[in-house]
Each structure stands twice: as C-alpha cells, then as structure tokens.
Amino acid sequence: MTWQSPAEFFAMGGYGFYVWGSFGLTALCILIEPLMARHRHQEILQELRREVAADMEDEKPAATLND
Asked: Considering the entire predicted model, what is its pTM?
C-alpha cells in the first residue's frame, strides 16, 4: 500500500483510529508497567522491613521490674 500524503498514511485506509489507538494503548502499557513494578517492589520491601523490625522487637528480652 502506498500513501500519497501524510494524511493518507495516518488515516491507514480508514482504519487509522483502530491502528493508532492500538499502538498508543500498547505504548502506554509498555511505559506504565515498569513504574508499577517498581512501586510494588518498594511496597514489598517496606512490608518486609516492618516484619523484620516486629520480629526483632519480639526477640528482645522483657524488661524486669524491680519492686
């Protein structure tokens, strides 16, 4: 298929909306996925740090009361 102008290229023979919409949505997903993965990774690390801190608190010897 040959196009005589940029407008014909972007129209894609009447399927431009579908073609460019699909391309745009795919590009958006490819860009957002690493950001979401990094955010989830940070959440998991924070959760693990809280769990380790709580475990360390549980392992400390209880303070003795001197009456």
From this structure: 0.60
